Amino acid sequence: LLRSVTMWLLLQSLLLLASCLRSAAAFPKGCYPSEEEGLKTFRCSNAQLTEVPRDIPNDTNKLYLDSNRIPFLPRDAFRDLPLLLELDLSHNAIVSVESGAFRGLAEHLHSLDLSSNRLVSVSKDTFSNLKAKVNLSNNPWLCDCQLQELIRTVDLAAGSSGGIVCDSSTQEEHVGKAFLQVIADTDFCNVYKKTTDIAMLVTMFGWFAMVISYLVYYVRQNQEDARRHLEYLKSLPSKQRRSEESSTISTVV
What we know:
The protein is an alpha/beta fold. It has helices at residues 2-26, 145-153, 179-182, 188-234, 238-252, and strands at 32-36, 39-43, 62-64, 72-73, 86-88, 96-97, 111-113, 133-135, 141-143, 155-156, 166-169. The protein has two domains: 26-186, Leucine-rich repeat, LRR (right-handed beta-alpha superhelix) (Alpha-Beta Horseshoe); 187-221. Helix content is 40%, strand content 14%. Strands 1-2-3-5-7-8-10 form a seven-stranded mixed β-sheet, covered by helices on one side. The chain has a two-stranded parallel ribbon with strand order 4-6. A two-stranded parallel ribbon has the order 9-11. The longest helix is centred in the C-terminal third of the chain and has 47 residues, at 188-234.
């Protein structure tokens, strides 16, 4: 009996060890799970990643993907992590975030760090329904109407707003300034609307001018034809001319 119990415990230990080794082998190099303050954490900091790992445990609460080389966040990149509370994507090379990249995280996520990346412009729909505090500082932002709408949509992390600086702008004098400072005096979306309205007016005026030009040409052409016809009638014998004139008058009437 003692031997049986010993063998059973040994077998269980081997199975557990094999399971752990298999799980570890499935993780990308430099990534490992842990537990911090009672929360299940998955760390991939400085792991030389070029994309979001696919084999992240779906019960993860805190995910660290900082200090890698990830350039792009595709749609549904985190859809299998319904319990995620914190997501750190700082210090990567992210230039593009597809709409729907954070789909499925709206209910639980309360912290999203996208600081120190290469973001120039992001649609406001990217963060739709997210309740998380978002850090967007230290990115080469283009200050325009789209960024203005984005800032009004997201809930910025405390102390991060000053780090959202205009690396470029639709108005040169704003380059190098904090975006929140700029929009205190400038409404980018109103300027854009005025520019669009002016362009529409110019286009409508162009079409109107073309129509008027065509009408003027048409009237002048008809007048020229009528003049030539009258001159032709005058050159005819009197009886035939009167008949032709009557016919012409009847036709005009």
